[in-house]
């Protein structure tokens, strides 16, 4: 059966001397693996389209097992991302996290739109670190353990300000703070951003400028939450953390 899909390459795996297996997140079918025969050859017709982050229209022959790519037309190569190592690191973490948290052929136009919009905005110069936090927050809905952010996770009070509790999986009001002596002290702005990220329509992503302290609070809260409730290991996150440290060190020495 011939299938034609719009999708974004989120993983590539070498197969043999000349072939690649592409994992494509598609609008029509969710995550789909296909074989790109000869893609590793420099003059292959799939050489350009079988790279990470490529958005395109892919046609493949679907059999009982993995599909075989027949044609691929590039829509967007996200050149700005691919030409910047830091942006590549952020984007690689995003696509790996999506890959880890989704199963093959689970259709979700919403996730496809989220992936496209985030890569597009990173490519256009929007703060990639902030967009990573947005994706991390949204993908928690796939884990079955999203944080409770609109009310106190312990007593259901809606009275702000809230702090962030790993133990209670979300917001904690002032009256309940004593129940978790290890709660994270975060600003009201950080809690509001987490709620915004959880609810924001991907098509309404815009430019967001945050203080460095707010960025640190978001990263700490989400990193600890993933460690406690998700347990997904992304190889690209270690590389991203190293890149961020190097980038921060270079800024501090200027």
UniProtKB/TrEMBL annotation:
Fetch the InterPro entries from UniProt: ARFGAP/RecO, DNA_rep/recomb_RecO_N, NA-bd_OB-fold, RecO, RecO_C
Could you give one GO CC term from the UniProt record? bacterial nucleoid
SUPFAM superfamilies in the record, alphabetically? Answer: ArfGap/RecO-like zinc finger, Nucleic acid-binding proteins
Q: Which UniProt keywords apply?
A: DNA damage, DNA recombination, DNA repair
- Residue limits of the DNA replication/recombination mediator RecO N-terminal domain? 1-78
Q: Which GO terms describe its biological process?
A: DNA recombination; double-strand break repair
Q: Family per UniProt?
A: Belongs to the RecO family.
- Matching PANTHER family, A to Z? DNA REPAIR PROTEIN RECO
Report the protein's function: Involved in DNA repair and RecF pathway recombination.
According to UniProt, the name of this protein is DNA repair protein RecO
